[in-house]
Amino acid sequence: MLTINGITVRLGGRDIISRASAAIPPRARVGLVGRNGAGKSTLVKVIIGEIEPDEGSIEMPRRTRLGYLAQEA
Q1: Residues 11, 20: contact at Cβ < 8 Å?
Q2: With contact defined as beta carbons under 8 Å apart, do 46 and 53 qualify?
């Protein structure tokens, strides 16, 4: 289980993500949908460890494998 606990990310004094929480079961396929600038990419970067959240935590089993391919449009 991947657990997102109250994640907050601030940039320039503004909350990009505010208290996001979720529980994703093993083998689940998840899509993030939202407007431009909603914080989707930022949340993924927190999950993969590229960005540290200002508040909250991510919990996942040790042997969890995550895939992420950044793309510019």
Answers
A1: no
A2: yes
**CB distance 20 to 43 below 8 Å:** yes
What are the structural domain ranges in the chain?
A: 2-26+37-59
For residues 64 and 73, give the distance between their C-alpha atoms in angstroms, rounded to a whole number: 29
Q: What is the 3-state secondary structure (H, E, C) of the chain?
A: CEEEEEEEEEECCEEEEEEEEEEECCCCCCCCCCCCCCCHHHHHHHHCCCCCCCEEEEECCCCCCCCCCCCCC
pLDDT in tens, the chain (73 residues): 899 999 999 999 999 999 999 999 988 888 899 999 899 999 999 999 999 999 999 999 988 888 788 877 6
